Amino acid sequence: MVEQQHNKNEELYNVEELRQYLLEGNIESFREIFLELHPYDQAQFYEKVGPDIRKTIYQFLSPQEMALIFEAIELEDEEYEQFLKEMDTVYGAEMLSYMYTDDAVDVLNELDDEHRESYLEIMDSETVEEINELLAYEEYTAGAIMTKEYVSILENSTVRSAMTVLRNEAPNAETIYYVFVVDENHCLTGVISLRDLIISDEDTLIKDIMNERVVFVKVSDDQEDIAQIMKDYNFLAIPVVNESNKLIGIITVDDIIDVIDEEASDDYSKLAGVTDIDDIEASPFKAAKKRLPWLIMLLFLGMITATLMGQFEETLDKVALLALFIPLISGTSGNSGTQALAVAVRGIATGEIDEKSKMKMLLREVMTGLITGIVCGLIVVGIIFIWKHTLLVGLLVGAAIGCSILVATIAGSFIPLLIHKLGVDPAVASGPFITTLNDVTSILIYLGLATTFLGQLS
Amino acid sequence: MVEQQHNKNEELYNVEELRQYLLEGNIESFREIFLELHPYDQAQFYEKVGPDIRKTIYQFLSPQEMALIFEAIELEDEEYEQFLKEMDTVYGAEMLSYMYTDDAVDVLNELDDEHRESYLEIMDSETVEEINELLAYEEYTAGAIMTKEYVSILENSTVRSAMTVLRNEAPNAETIYYVFVVDENHCLTGVISLRDLIISDEDTLIKDIMNERVVFVKVSDDQEDIAQIMKDYNFLAIPVVNESNKLIGIITVDDIIDVIDEEASDDYSKLAGVTDIDDIEASPFKAAKKRLPWLIMLLFLGMITATLMGQFEETLDKVALLALFIPLISGTSGNSGTQALAVAVRGIATGEIDEKSKMKMLLREVMTGLITGIVCGLIVVGIIFIWKHTLLVGLLVGAAIGCSILVATIAGSFIPLLIHKLGVDPAVASGPFITTLNDVTSILIYLGLATTFLGQLS
Q: Where is the CBS domain positioned along the sequence (chains A, B) (predicted)?
């Protein structure tokens, strides 16, 4: 399908033809084909051609047309700055003011203060005010992802006047499929969908047909919680209010899809111990920089395990056979810990695990650890007995594996809950603790048992 | 926010009050409050009350009203069957025919053949035909997630007649914000948004204002690829065509959000070695059943490592100190392998890694492995020298860690690509191979080096 999609795009337009028009300076033919394309396809073309050709594009397209491309584009952080620098500052500022506020803010957030100021200075004051408002909100909150381009009407309007407002706002609003209803203080009182508007009589009053049970979010709410609500209710947009219940923006479903994608990638990369997963294009040095903090931290924590094992050097010295099963035991303990951790972290992230279900889940994990521990322990006893013909070592390794699976499973679910309680993101902080704890306990159990039964072993 | 949301819901309606009306048989008061709620809130209430109270709900609500709840509900697979069994078969069948086809198919898919047939037998033939069509499509394809409730018009219609069609279809169609344009053979020729319709003159012909560059998907396309397209283009719905380009359904953004969520959870749970992450509510036996296959497989693969180490029993027997660093080395190698694996698997899943960028990425990973390996190796040499005052053991462990990080990083990116090439999902199959390969190579390198330099050590 990915290939098909590429083929289809190539059917939709001819990259070489467009490039040729730009090189020839054939503005009319270029605009005729290019402006017919979906902004996403325009952005793909714009991104692919080199800086020289892009300079011609800036001459051929108005800042307003360029704004559509910048709304659709998905770039690495530094690329925004690079592309903006190719443009004339006045052109760039004008383009930014034509963009939806939330998208303009995303771009401006990537610039350094000085560079950002140079744009804000020449933009009109109303837009600058809106942009500064959004820039002030904390990252990952409703305020940071909302847009100011929504349609609102007074509750005393009729359907007819609402439709007139809609038609006028249609070219600017990010969505016209929901109209938000406010009172004279601009406080949110209801919502009505365009679907309901077009099937209603034109003289009906909005307040008689609007939905008063409007679900909204606060400007400081976390984006992940908002994503959950929009997913549950299947909304295309959700209104954002400030502390005094005044409507100040909306969040649309396309931004929420990006949030869901981003948060899932986040949890995933944290489980894998990479600070940021989107680095396919990054240089080896950048990739190494992202991975080293985790590796080095685990290296130091791994030294704790080595120190602890040093206490049993005498036992290991006497029965070298014991060392063979150390990777197996710590590996299995690590695996079962990661499983429990993954379930707990996802459960906390999706809100499935709350205060009430916490104890229930912990109890469940204890039982799960017992079952998996006993099953794996028995299998190991069997394998070692068949392979090495020794029941004693088998029992020792089996018991160690069983116990460490139990401990690892409990730790894997308890530690994220504890860390979450402390207000830290459990996805990022749980891993190293659990890895170390599991290594330490599994080896303590194994070599402790071995030392106790040393007489029978040697 | 999660708490706030709960609070807000509780403001929106009083659970106890509703429950009381049901117990008293006060049908009017119940319907007055309940039907005002958003279907998601209705579903939350319906799910929470016990089976006895639900029996009363079936008496108080029509199958059509119940259909809205079933569209909004998110249940475990078995629960659908359980809830349906509480209803009268005729009531259940009628409810299913009122549901959007895609949602009805989701429910019917959870039932055994016999049970499903009992519903299909009493539903009207047109609905059954549509349902059977969707049931026939393979899971995870466009056909399996599309809905038949879309709005289409002929290209020769006027805006006025299009609006009339829209108003008539509004109560049934899953979205009316896109109207799909077809020719007399029902082949897809264009698309027009409601936004464009309401700002156009009523006498304009659709074909003059429609967008002819309509992006569509084929019925057999993979849902993950479709999600990517809808994310790129910010569509609210996308049309689905069959082999002869006939429009046969649409996929809406709410279903795509579920796909994105599901696929991200999938990748995540596979990385953690759990066959399915959504098991917060599952019994310990069920949870253990989901985790054991992975644990047992790794147990057997771990035996390979133990066997291999058996070859070095003599070396270990002579220098017990060596055993202390085994968990550290295999742990670090495992960690760097998982990092590389995560980047590769996500890159393949999101389509960022394709044929062209493959070699580039592999080369990048070789360099990344070299850098991280050298840095970590040097750190280890330093730590062990300071701690144990032995440069030789430090160099040995440092070299082993450096080499195994390099090997693990290359394996972590190469193996998913290889497995993907073989047509297998790299997320699920790469883990055990890489874990074992990393354990084996890291120990081989470590104990191999140690045996070579044994003279200097003992």
A: 146-209, 210-268
CATH number, domain at A420? 1.10.357.20
Positive or negative: CA dihedral A353, A357, A362, A366: negative
Do A177 and A38 share a structural domain?
no
Give the count of domains, chain B: 3
Say whether both A106 and A129 belong to one domain: yes
Cβ–Cβ of A284/B368 closer than 8 Å?
yes
Q: What is the rounded average pLDDT of the residues B283-304?
A: 81
Q: Give the structural domain span for B440.
A: 284-457
Model confidence pLDDT, tens digit, residues A41-82 = 899 899 888 888 999 999 999 999 999 999 888 777 778 888
pLDDT digits (tens, 9 = 90+) for B415-424: 888 888 887 7
Interface contact flag, A343 B277, Cβ < 8 Å: yes
* pLDDT tops 60 at residue B458: no
- Facing residue for B167 by CB, picked from A198, A225, A354: A198
Burial readout B401-428 (b: 16 or more C-beta within 10 A, e: otherwise): bbbbbbbbbbbbbbbbbebbeeeebbbb
B271 is a domain residue: no
User: Which tokens in the block code for residue A160?
Assistant: 């007819």
Which runs of E-coded beta strand occur in B229-318?
237-241, 247-252
A131 and A202 housed in the same domain: no
CB contact under 8 A, A283 and B364: yes
Query: Above 60 in pLDDT, residue B10?
Result: no
Same domain for A14 and A157, yes or no, is: no
Neighboring chain A residues of B334 at a CB cutoff of 8 Å: 331, 334
Chain A nearest-CA residue for B264: A264
Closest C-alpha among A349, A100, A385 to residue A231: A349
Among the partner residues A222, A288, A323, nearest to B368 by beta-carbon distance: A288
Total beta-carbon pairs less than 8 A apart between chain A and chain B: 353
